[in-house]
Amino acid sequence: MDSQPTSLQRLHNVEKRLVRVLELAGAVMDELASSTGPRAEFLAGHCREFMMSIKEIQTTLREEIKSACEYRPFEKCDYSARIANEICVKKLEYIIDQLDGLKESIDNYED
Amino acid sequence: MEEGGRRRISIDLDRLPIKRLDAIDEIGNEQFPPDVSHEEKRLGMIRRIDFSSIVADSVGTRKKQKTTPKEAAPAPQQAWPWQGFVENLQLAHQELSVIIDLINTVEANDAVAVSGMQRPKQLPNENLSDLAVSAATKLQRLRNLGRYFKQSSKALELKVSREARFYGSLIRLQQHWKLKRQRVLAGPGSDGFSFDLLDNTSSDTTMLSRPLPNALVRIVRENAGLLAIQRPPKSFRCISISYTGTNFSSRSKKPLKGNIYNSVENPQANKKAALTDEDVNSWVKDTHSVLREIHQSIFLEQVFDRVNHESYCTSPGIHVTGMLEDLLQLAVGQDTSICMSLVSVKKEDDFLDSRGLSQKGNNGFTHSDSSALVANNEKDEFNQNNLEVPSPVGLEIYLVHIFHKNSLVRLKEKNFSASRVAVAGHAATESCGLTHFCKTVAHRIFSTKVLAEIERLVSRIPYVQLLSHPPWHSRTSSWSLFLKFPESVFHTACLSESSNNYDVKGLIRPQIHTKIVVKDDQVTVSGEGALGTLCSFGISADGSSMDSYGCDLDDLPLILLQQVSLSIAYTALFDRKALLQTNVLTIAGQIIRWLHDEALIVGMKVSRDFLCLYLELDQGDMLGLVARVDPDDVNGCISWWMIMEDGMADDGKFSTNSGEYKNRRFLGHLSLEALYSMLMDLVNVSTNSLGGS
């Protein structure tokens, strides 16, 4: 479970697997269509990988669908807190300016 | 139908590859010539040109009873080129008659038993070639399929990465902003996503008179899958406060550097470069910054709207002197006025200003034609570093802070009183933010002036310290003047008579503490002289009662002008000189009192007036130490004179007429230690003289 911590990453891995499955299918077809005839072990390996990937995709998707929760929009809208933070940022910038000014004047005195 | 003896070149015009019946017997069995493959047909045709040989029938068995007309005519040469054609037609005619007979027989419903006709068994090489053809076709199809799969896997990978970029950015932004989706597609390239920046929970929508179309920001999808937003027009505005007639304003915001939304109207991803994670990251960050700006500007518009609303109601502290669509001018204090305007930061919006006024620079008033809105007072000495007035940046921050806090309070009240009966006049109990703001600005300007005066005073008296006590209320300021007397005999004397000491805390060095408090525009001066201890030396009653006078502001107007405390209340007619003079008088008076007490300790006969200390010498002589207070004196505010008088004076006090110059000596500006040592010298003089008498 630790290898894919978030469900988003799991779903991303599923997508990557789908791409890989398609590539395998293409490789198998090419192998079958080769003029010298298909190599059995090559085909067997690819098909095994194909089937395993499909199985894994299925299990992952099933889990994700079961565990997907209801999306509740606009819960705990924090826009006013965000505004408060912006005001604090402005205050801090102002104070930093003042402190810089103080420091400059102190430096001027020391010179 | 061969004609013998004629030499003819056989040119076969037969193009009908019909299967011709070889034979049909009475039962109805048809016999067809065996299938000739394409190659064989070609070979056969080639061989017909070959005169010399009749190649044996290479295909089929010898079941046929009639040779095919094709192979039947290799040898004879016919002069007439159409002869073969004619023969073929005749043969075809024969076959057709056979078939017609058969059909007539069938039509006549005779019992015709038709048995199934099987395809003749293929020769092995026919089988092989069929197999080869089908195998080749299958291979071809498989190859196509393989190519198709690979292409689609590449396309899927691209699509997956594009979607991952878009939805990854969307998820990151969705943690901070409200996301809305409309299923109806607004246009190509957008999925109907948009960010809703309007805060419905805490804003009072009934109060808004400004429509806010900018609150819904559309999301578009770039070509490479990156998320971008469409910035609504006139969306980057901020409140700028400036002092009317000057350039001293708070408008210093610049658009963000390096933001992708600054260079072009709609940002486009660089198509050539491959998109990396940092690119996606920087896009998300830029989008987030732009959303922050838009959100802030919406809030500032709401604040400005609310300011306008509050300026409509007449309050004692608000004086509106001018109003435009995006601009409000207020008079604060006596001779300053500030101008609040909603300006936009982006340059394009400047040109789109509805009034045609240039928003660059301070405000629109200087360009306006209406003279009624000209500023009250144009001070030229305002500049960026001016400390006389509070900085506009600070004012802007404070204004926004007030209104945000008020909105939160209103929200709480609304939630709290939702269950109670709705009060129509509830708005009256709300604190009016604009009043508070204007009063604060007025107070700040006033207190700066007060502070300037006090600093002037303190810089001239070296032994007075100025402390400032910042109160946590925006309309109050307080300072205190602190005067510490040097270590004296008093202290050691108290120590020697330690039997009656109350506690160690009481044995403090004598000090004078004067507090100056400014509330709105009222100045209160109160002095505490804490000699602070009770000793058995019998300090006079008014000395011991000094420290029990707290600074009770309510009682201060009732306290008469005493040496202990002075209370002065000024209204808007503020007289700086009087304040200064009062302060210095207080200090001088307290110095005199201190000297008086010191002298009493050492046993001199002294008496004092407000600013004079009289020492009794023998023979009735009086020595006087007079403090002269001059606030405008550059060298120092308090100077000391020594006056000598004979005992012939009528009332034992000095006359203050300036006629007796010869008895006065100017001592200059003395420090406290110098005064004390001088006093002690005088003590010696007086004791000697006493002793001597």
Automatic annotation (TrEMBL), chain B:
GO molecular function annotations of the record: transcription coregulator activity
Superkingdom in the source lineage: Eukaryota
UniProt KW keywords: Nucleus, Transcription, Transcription regulation
Name recorded for this polypeptide: Mediator of RNA polymerase II transcription subunit 17
Assigned protein family: Belongs to the Mediator complex subunit 17 family.
Claim: Heme is one of the keywords in the record: no
Location in the cell: Nucleus
InterPro entries named among the record's database cross-references: Mediator_Med17
Main subcellular localisation: nucleus
GO cellular component term of the entry, any: mediator complex
BP terms from Gene Ontology: regulation of transcription by RNA polymerase II
